[in-house]
Amino acid sequence: MQEWWDSLDLFMKSLWGISIFSSLVFVVQSIMTFIGMDSGTDFNTDISSDIPSHDQPFQLFTFRNFINFFLGFGWTAIALRPNIDNTFLLLFIAIIVGVLLVTAVMLIFKWLSGMEQSGNISINMAVGCKGTVYLTIPASRQGEGKVQISIQGATREYDAITDGEKLANGTPVRVKDIINENTLLIEKL
Questions:
Q1: Cα R_g (the chain), whole angstroms
Q2: For a Cys-Cys bond, which of 10, 50, 71, 159 suits 22, CB 3.0-4.6 Å?
Q3: φ, ψ for residue 137 (rounded to 5)?
Q4: Distance CA 78, CA 15 (A)
Q5: Packing angle between helix 63-80 and helix 10-34, nearest 10 degrees?
Q6: Which of 106, 103, 81 is nearest to 15 (CA)?
């Protein structure tokens, strides 16, 4: 091993150093991503840092993109070095492969982010939904109770009033209207 390392010129030693370092960081990043510890580990080095990150979810100059670039650059240069004697051509091809790798990873993450769901359910979706009384609702809007309503397969709890008779716990109900962002007008089923 020592003989092999000593036989390399400075250029090849540099390429091996870049490739091994970027590969190790890539493996650590991948493991952290799969176990859910990658949030907040991406260092933003974008020049326009005064623009909030939620407006531009895919920034070019991030630590992860630098690692992806050097991963593609280093291993491409090492693989092509025996076949290409021209150093400038070798570097040009390696840079192109590094940029293509960053682009591919960004496109994959953009595609994946399009598949995520916010998990937010708007109260506007509640009209017509069915549920049950959770806390007794006084008659004729004389006070509030609580209901549990199923909206898009998720159970939510809201304050509720009724125009009709008093509704006891466990009474099946349907949402008639929305009073405000946390209160529903309900009717007995």
A1: 30
A2: 71
A3: -110, 120
A4: 7
A5: 140
A6: 81
Q: What is the pLDDT of residues 44-62, one digit of tens each?
A: 444 444 333 444 455 767 8
Contact present, 173 and 132 (Cβ < 8 Å): yes
CA dihedral (150, 154, 158, 161) in degrees, to 10, reads: -10
Burial class (CB in 10 A: 0-12, 13-18, 19+), 15: buried
Using DSSP bridges, classify how beta strands 172-180 and 183-188 pair: parallel, antiparallel or unpaired. antiparallel
In degrees and rounded to multiples of 5, residue 46 shows phi and psi of: -70, 135
* pLDDT at 184 (0 to 100): 92
HSE on the CB side for 155, CA within 13 Å? 7
Q: Give the pLDDT score at 35.
A: 83
Local structure of 57: helix, strand or coil: coil
The span from the CA of 182 to the CA of 6, in Å, is 72
φ, ψ of residue 136 in degrees (nearest 5): -45, 135
* Longest CA span, the chain: 92
Beta partners for 167? Answer: 137
Could you give the angle at which helices 87-113 and 63-80 cross, rounded to 10 degrees? 140
